[in-house]
Fold:
Amino acid sequence: MKKFAKDSAFERAGIPCLIWVGVISMILNNVIYPIMESACGINIQPVPLPTEYWGALPWIIGAIMGKKVGDKYIRRSYEMEDIDDADWNKPHP
Structure:
């Protein structure tokens, strides 16, 4: 099984999980924890994600969008909707 093949487990689960970790972290650190501190008096220290994560996240999202655009428009321009990933390098008429 290819890691980055269309509909691979990494593309369907791993990459969205990386994106949602950032979203949940931002919501908890900037919304939920301050509300809990002001309303209930519970002081929870935010857990920041490493700067490497925030540096890699735009690249991950850009790669996903680029792959989706490439899959849609490159295959359409060559009229290759029925060609599998394994046949990508073979010459086409």
In short: The chain has a mean pLDDT of 77. The radius of gyration is 20 Å. The first helix runs from residue 9 to 40. Helices lie at 9-40, 51-78.
